[in-house]
């Protein structure tokens, strides 16, 4: 039985595409019960969403479709409204008798923050009570400060303070209750449905895994096994040693509180405490980069460390294209970039390797790489991506100075010693022996014939000399630092 009450309280879904452990939903349910209201769920398709369409949009809309399906099965339709924000809200307002309150999980940075400010102004004008919640992170961007005041810029010090803070626990939502509280109408804005239908029509990627059930299944599988080997295995891209939960976390299909809580449960029971603790520490990195981004809102465009502003980056379209297409002649870089193209995801170790290669070996601007990841990743998260790129480019929060230049061949030998990952993504190299897989240019002509891989024809020679490029980048950074 759906609810026919006149007074309505709305839950605004955004990048929190789930029904469990959802703060806005949880508190809206309490409010609806206490104030005798019906619950209306909505999603707003912002006009900007129709302008660009990348893999992450594809993944996002499929995740949205998944949560709408789950909600519809519980007879709680998630209505879709479109147009500019005010127009979309007005559509809701004109369809209900009395819109009392709105509940949503807020954003603290970027486009989301600007949108929230606009929304708040409208709600206030209409005397609609707004209740907002911190959802996406365990520790909020303003919860930790240095003793001397201001945000931390060094992760190790931040981590100490992060560990001391009580983390929020999961919120349990009774699905049976949802049906009885849900608002009676089944459609609200047919234009919104049409706009969303068109966007879903653009989805072409065959994602096997979307939706809350898939996220929980992957989380359980990880907690049951891989987490207890995480510290040792997380750097090897050929092994499923990491959780691969980032796309779910990004779109809020899985709650960070639930994930943290499950990790703590394993930690309590296991003897592999170091392994599990390393995993928990990665969740702190996520909070750290979010906090840095909130306190440096211009860091998508500017170097966080002012010492490294004004680096004379190289503009070389051919080099950039070779990096993007995975044809650099450095097998580990090429395999990583092809994994990104094929799956919309890349292993963390490889993100560091390819980012270092672009910014240090090729001396191409980190902003170019950051934007390319934005277009290519399904887990694209502005804060983590900017943090990761600025770390790799030595312009951000890395405690080690700019001398950190990854040697791609050495990284390959260390983290893909048998070449399994390379062979999975660079089929030209599948018959190259382990002795040459990390640097195929070391093969003699005879060995190339034998492997069916002629350098310069089947697979490119290395596009740069790593040693020589290392000297150039170190000199460049030194000069800029001295000048600044
Ligand atoms: P796991 O190893 O299982 O870790 C668990 C979770 O912890 C991850 O899902 C993620 O949410 C968080 N996490 C782990 N490592 C980091 C880290 N270094 N920084 C922040 N959070 C972390 N992560 C994104 O979610 N979106 C991005 O756009 C993104 N861009 C990156 C760009 C660069 C250049 C680099 C070096 C890293 C980037 N990362 C990004 C961080 C990291 O690579 C991914 O979070 C991780 O690879 C996701 O895989 P996983 O879920 O298996 O991670």
TrEMBL record:
Any one GO molecular function term: DNA binding
Residues annotated as binding FAD: 230, 242-246, 279, 282-289, 379-381
Enzymatic class: lyase
Cofactor note: Binds 1 FAD per subunit.
Record's catalysed reaction(s): cyclobutadipyrimidine (in DNA) = 2 pyrimidine residues (in DNA)
Sections of the chain in a coiled coil: none
The keyword Lyase is annotated on this UniProt entry: yes
Photolyase/cryptochrome alpha/beta domain boundaries: 7-138
GO biological process, one term: response to light stimulus
Enzyme Commission (EC) number: 4.1.99.3
Site (Electron transfer via tryptophanyl radical): 313, 366, 389
Taxonomy, superkingdom: Bacteria
Cofactor(s) the protein requires to work: (6R)-5,10-methylene-5,6,7,8-tetrahydrofolate; FAD
Record keywords, A-Z: Chromophore, FAD, Flavoprotein, Lyase
Pfam families: DNA_photolyase (PF00875), FAD_binding_7 (PF03441)
Family per record: Belongs to the DNA photolyase family.
Name of the protein this chain belongs to: Deoxyribodipyrimidine photo-lyase
Lineage: Bacteria, Bacillati, Bacillota, Bacilli, Bacillales
């Amino acid at each position: 039985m759906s609810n026919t009450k006149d007074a309505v309280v709305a839950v605004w879904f955004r990048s929190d595409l789930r029904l469990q452990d959802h703060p806005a939903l949880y508190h809206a349910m309490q409010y609806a019960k206490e104030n005798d209201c019906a619950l209306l769920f909505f999603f707003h398709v912002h006009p900007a969403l129709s302008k660009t369409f990348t893999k992450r949009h594809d993944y996002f809309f499929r995740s949205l479709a998944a949560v709408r399906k789950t909600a519809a099965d519980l007879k709680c339709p998630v209505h879709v409204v479109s147009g500019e924000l005010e127009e979309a809200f007005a559509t809701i307002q004109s369809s209900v008798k009395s819109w009392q309150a709105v509940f949503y999980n807020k954003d603290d940075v970027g486009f989301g923050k600007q949108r929230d400010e606009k929304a708040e102004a409208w709600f206030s004008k209409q005397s609609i009570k707004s209740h907002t919640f911190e959802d996406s992170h365990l520790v909020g961007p303003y919860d930790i400060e240095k003793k001397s005041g201001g945000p931390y810029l060094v992760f190790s010090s931040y981590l100490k303070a992060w560990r001391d803070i009580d983390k929020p626990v999961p919120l349990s939502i009774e699905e049976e209750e949802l049906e009885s509280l849900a608002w009676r109408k089944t459609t609200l804005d047919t234009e919104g449905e049409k706009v969303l239908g068109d966007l879903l029509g653009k989805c072409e990627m065959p994602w096997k895994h979307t939706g809350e059930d898939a996220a929980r299944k992957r989380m359980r599988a990880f907690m049951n096994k891989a987490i207890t080997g995480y510290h040792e295995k997380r750097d090897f891209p050929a092994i499923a040693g990491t959780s691969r939960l980032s796309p779910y976390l990004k779109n809020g299909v899985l709650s960070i509180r639930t994930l943290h809580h499950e990790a703590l449960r394993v930690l309590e029971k296991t003897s592999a405490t170091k392994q599990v603790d390393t995993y928990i520490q990665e969740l702190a990195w996520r909070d750290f980069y979010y906090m840095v981004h909130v306190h440096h809102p211009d860091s998508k465009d500017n170097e966080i460390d002012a010492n490294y502003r004004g680096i004379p980056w190289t503009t070389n379209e051919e080099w950039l294209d070779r990096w993007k297409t995975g044809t650099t002649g450095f097998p580990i870089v090429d395999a990583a970039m092809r994994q990104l193209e094929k799956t919309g995801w890349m292993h963390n170790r490889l993100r560091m390797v390819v980012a270092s290669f672009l910014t240090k070996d090729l001396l191409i601007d980190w902003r170019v790489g950051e934007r390319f990841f934005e277009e290519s990743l399904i887990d694209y998260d502005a804060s983590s991506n900017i943090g990761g790129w600025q770390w790799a480019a030595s312009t951000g929060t890395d405690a080690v100075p700019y001398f950190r230049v990854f040697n791609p061949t050495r990284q390959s030998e260390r983290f893909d010693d048998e070449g399994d990952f390379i062979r999975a993504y660079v089929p030209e190299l599948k018959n190259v022996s382990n002795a040459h897989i990390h640097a195929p240019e070391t093969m003699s002509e005879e060995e190339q014939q034998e492997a069916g891989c002629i350098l310069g024809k089947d697979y490119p020679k290395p596009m740069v000399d790593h040693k020589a490029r290392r000297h150039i980048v170190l000199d460049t950074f030194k000069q800029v630092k001295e000048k600044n």
